[in-house]
Amino acid sequence: MKKYKKELQIGITTLIALIVLFFGINYLKGNALFSTDNTYYAIYNSVSGLHASNYIYINGMKVGFVKKIERVDVKGQKFLVEIAIDNEVKIPVDSKLVMYSSGLLGGTEMRIDIGNSLTLMKNKDTINAIAEMGLMDKLGSDLKPTIAGITAAATHLDSVLTAINQVLDRQAQENIKQSLENIKTTTNYLSSVSIQLDGLLEKEKARLSNILSNVESIATNLNNNSEKLNNIITNFNNISDTLAQAQIGSTLRETNQSLTSVSTILHKIESGEGNLGMLINDDQLYKNLDNAVKKLDALIEDIKANPKRYVKISVF
Length: 316
Hints:
The chain is of the alpha/beta class. It is built from eight helices and seven strands, in the order αβββββββααααααα. Helices cover 62% and strands 14% of the residues.
């Protein structure tokens, strides 16, 4: 009995593990076992990059996934894609299932472009299948004519060069080679000159930038000191009005006349004219006058000291 019990436990454990594995694999594939999703079909000529469990989007929102991809014909030119869409999403019959590339290095994705029809698709209906050309495919298709043209031009150029080599002699070929070398040297020189000009332009640009900065600083200072400047200008205007009212011209003329008179008087004094001139220029007159002043001073002192000698008072 114990032996059978152990085998029963192993069997139950194995069954649970298989069930969990089954549900896990289906969950990873995106299959919902108990869901009520609607199933739709689409037929494509190529399913490159498309896999089962790829999500399907409508306006960027996930609404379903790819359930299965099957080959329709033996040659593999048609493929049936089975998709599951949330049953709450109503799809008009003119809608399109678009398979497109998500980017330059991205994989293949699918979206539904909702149509405008009032008639809705039913479960297991076939939806219109559209395959958009990827970025690399577009580039390849756009480049094919260009590559063909380049190939034809290269072939033509090769034939032209061959014909030229056959026509031209060695000296002419050497001349052409020398001309090409001269062109190369000239190109290098022009490149050097261009670099030097770029350097000069950068220096001039920096110098102009400094000048503009200084001008902006001066303008800022003038703007900040505009009130002071206005006061200075007002003061100058007041001074100008005062000077205008002072009649400086007539004042200067009168002053000039006074200075002329003073100059004439000083000239006469220096020439000895008049008493002051004689007093200044005649030393003897100065000495006599000085002696007279001293004697007068001595007389005044003696009068102060002996008044009775000079004044007689009689009383009646």
